[in-house]
Structure formats: structure tokens, C-alpha cells
Fold this protein.
Amino acid sequence: MEDPHSEWNEAKDELVRFIVNLGFPEEFGLEIAKGLGAPKAIRRMTSYLKIARPKDPETIVDEMLAIRSEIDSWRQKKKSEEANAKYNELLNCGLDEYGKDRCHLIKTDGLCQVHLL
């Protein structure tokens, strides 16, 4: 299994090389990689840059923010799906199945979450 740090470093290095080839400073590429975080997001950005070849840094930053926004939305969707599945399980099985002392409703970020202990 590949080390996650080496995977991140390889993706980061490729992104930085490409950003430098477009005429931007290396530091800019490093900040874009940090802003994206995950190797998959960094590779997605690199692919975008290879196709679009943007001329200004604002376009690159806009794409980085769009990628981050999609990742954050996906994570929130997965959290909501998990909470909904637990809630449906609670509705289908009832509190007696879990015992009232094992079930807690917690409201966070405007969402009710069922925590089964």
C-alpha cells in the first residue's frame, strides 16, 4: 500500500511543476496544493490546468475554491445520509430495540442526528 504522504507529495509536485510551467511562482502552486488538501483534489486541479491553461491566478484560485466546495458538499451529503439511515433504523426498530438509554438525539448545524450508543 502506498504511503499517503508520498501520494500527496507526488500529486503536489506535479501540480507545482505545471503551475510553474504556466508562468506562476512555485509558492503559488504550493498554496493551491495546500488549499486543496487531498491528492485526488490536487490531481483534479492539475487535469483542469492542463486543459484550460488559465492566464491569470484568479481563475486558478476560483477553480480551487470550486473543487473545495464540491468536496465539502459531498462530505456534508454523506454525513446527512448516515444520520438519515440511523434515524430510519430508529423509526423502523423503535426505541425498545435500542433501549432509551442507548439513543440520543443531538442537534448540530441545524440537523438532528441520532446517536446510537
